[in-house]
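Quick one, T. Sequence first:
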Amino acid sequence: MPKFFIKTYGCQMNERDAEQVAHSLMARGYERVSKESEADVVLLNTCSVRDMADQKALGKMGMLGRLAKERPHVVFGFLGCMAQARGDELLKGLSHVDLVVGTQKFHRVADYVEELVAKKAARTECAFYHSSQAMDDLRFSIVDVAEERGSQSTIRDQSVTPGQATAFVSIMQGCNMHCTFCIVPQTRGMERSRSINDIVSEVRDLVSRGVKEITLLGQIVNLYGRHEFPKIDNKSPFVQLLEAVDDVNGLERLRFTSPHPIGFRDDLIDAISRLPKLAEHVHLPLQSGSNKILKTMHRAYTAEKYLDLVRRIRRARDGIAITTDIIVGFPGETEDDYKQTRDLVDKIQFDNAFVFRYSPRRGTPAADMLDQIEERTREERNQDLLQVVNVSNRRSLERLVGQCVEVLCEGPSKTNPARLMGRTRTNKIVVFEGSDRLIGELVKVRIEQANGFSLYGTPIREAHVSGVLSLERKPEACATLASF
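Structure tokens:
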């Protein structure tokens, strides 16, 4: 049985794309392995959002050149955003690379892999019987970064492992916003959305196989279907989709990421307030607290409008967690611009935030802007803002100490495999002790300690209640935080 290895860089969308590729290969009899040294096919699913991600993938593939010499039959390939952006350029200097597939052709990877595996086998056989010139004649590669109509509907199949609690569902591809720092419109194309029926069908299938939590994915997820589908009863296509997925029997939790502030209209705020399965967590990218920088970024909102939106979301759902993305050191960002960002972050008190130093991306308007900020200043602002975020994050965790929370157990803790980990409805990580039979179950856990970025607790004595593996050792405690 041939074996394959996939390493994924970047966002949840990339993870979902990788699962699509894995599913298609396993459907053809391939076995997934965790080490590239054991694989007959090695694929790197790449990201181009930041230069660091490009360099990591290129460095990794360069190191794999040694493996290619030891195992000449192995197929090596780049997939995803960097593949889309660079195309056959990736073959230069990496002679062992056989495959480059862009973001609209993941469903064709299995076909290409099988073709290359066969050619590699023929080439290996040729090495025993023919000259080096004949070997040179059998050199080959496949590059496919062309656009494909309807590609948004091809990311629909994925495997589910025993005890798997969560799954990503891609609802759209592409982005029309053209933020000046972002390469996504070039690597993912224009917005294209799947139908609601198609998405709901995938969700039902996942739930039938034991998945309890679904995260809907899109480059700007809350702008789903705005060009393809009509409003109904003044509800946007995205809200119609949320209602349809919320109605799936057996689904316990529903999330979505990543949205854009301009996509939060009254109908979505209302949906947040009333859909019971929609988790109490919104990831709401800010990027900057300076109106000057927001305008230069083409973000289409002001700091004041963002703050008002945060207040509306918090009024809509008691106890909701809000996380964000922020870029520091964007071209032209003065000390005053940075201070405005810092002050806004401190005022909002996010539950957590991803803080990034600005990284120029080839082909984006921001990369050619004047007043690029030196790396030392970017790093200083990054570290300073992280301290502000860490304080508010710690406060949000400490508020849960002594409370009883609902946790969806995802499996062993990455830092301590002897313990289990899961997430609250507000997306807080909880680590606790328990047997493997809790994996994939909803568990009530009494929080005893907040440490760093995680919570630690103890499951309450097990008792199945309405499909939830409950913990009623101290029932009076559990009643204090029902929303989680």
